[in-house]
Amino acid sequence: NVGLFASFAVFLVLFIWIERFAKDPLVPLHLFRNRMFSTTMGLSVLYGTVIMAASIYFPLFLQGVFGESATSTGRIMIPFMLGIIVSGGLTGRLIGAITFRSIYVLASVILLVATGFLSQMTTDTERWVFTIYMIVYGLGLGITYPTVISSALYKVNQNVQGIVTSLSTFFRSLGMAVGLAVLTSVQSNILDSKIHAILPEEIGKNMKNTTDFLIPQIRKLIPDDLYKQMVNALTQSIASIFLVTLFLIAATIVIALVMGRAKEELALEKTMQPKINS
Questions:
Q1: pLDDT in tens, 154-194
Q2: Is 200 exposed, middle or buried (0-12, 13-18, 19+ CB in 10 A)?
Q3: Residue 98 β-bridge partners
Q4: Measured distance CA(145)–CA(124) in Å, rounded
Q5: Fewest beta carbons within 10 Å, which of 48, 159, 213, 228?
Q6: Is-contact 223 17, C-beta < 8 A?
Q7: pLDDT digits (tens, 9 = 90+) for 30-74
């Protein structure tokens, strides 16, 4: 993993050096001198990581604690997705009415509330309670989707708008990739230490991964008392991930606060401006 990150850093520096002297660069570096654009890209990375925390650990928690099957992931994620869709649609009314900064802070505060509760989950958490957590988490994330595109395009020349739109998606994907690597590594290490402390050797030799105890064939080999301890260890490791996510969301608020007071200029305002000036 260290080697991969080192390679990434080397190729990133090389890419920036090439782009500086390219006549027609893939990524115009002057865009990053625009405070609105650069802060939006930073938010895209962090929100991408926040997305991965939900995408990976909501299904895993439901599978481990509530006994859902891995194949039912699509169905059990519906409340989360509904939250994204509803808030994403309503956010259009906020864009232009208030500043981008205010919209991002609102999204992050909602995410902070949901993630705070998620970081306190236990095996005693009720299914309906967890569903509410998912919905609220989705509501916070849904606000960010249209806002990221709008703030990234704020006062950007038309000839680079396609590039800016692509970059906003790229940086979110980058955050998702980094989040996948970092969060799964942290969660796996926490779970490994807890599982190996309670797992008998004769059962452990049948498990390639510490989450294999959720597989029905291996589950049959584990006594009920031991299984409950393993599920509790899994729950604690997932709660720890959302505790880490809390700090990432707090970082989004800090970035949003330095992006300025700009807000989207509505089309009606733009068309009325010449008449007002005349």
A1: 888 888 889 899 999 999 999 999 899 889 989 988 988 88
A2: exposed
A3: 95
A4: 33
A5: 159
A6: no
A7: 888 889 999 999 999 999 999 999 999 999 898 888 887 767 777
Residues 27 and 19 sit within 8 Å (Cβ to Cβ): yes
What's the one-letter identity of residue 48? G
Sign of CA dihedral 271, 274, 276, 278: negative
Q: Write out the two tokens for 161.
A: 């708008």
Token pair 């008392």: residue: 225
φ, ψ at 97 (rounded to 5°)? -85, -40
pTM attached to this predicted model: 0.86
Alpha helices, H only, 153-262: 161-198, 201-204, 216-219, 224-257
User: Angle 30-32-38 (CA atoms, 0-180°, nearest 5)?
Assistant: 160
Tens digit of each residue's pLDDT (9 = 90 or more) over 92-115: 888 878 899 999 999 999 999 999
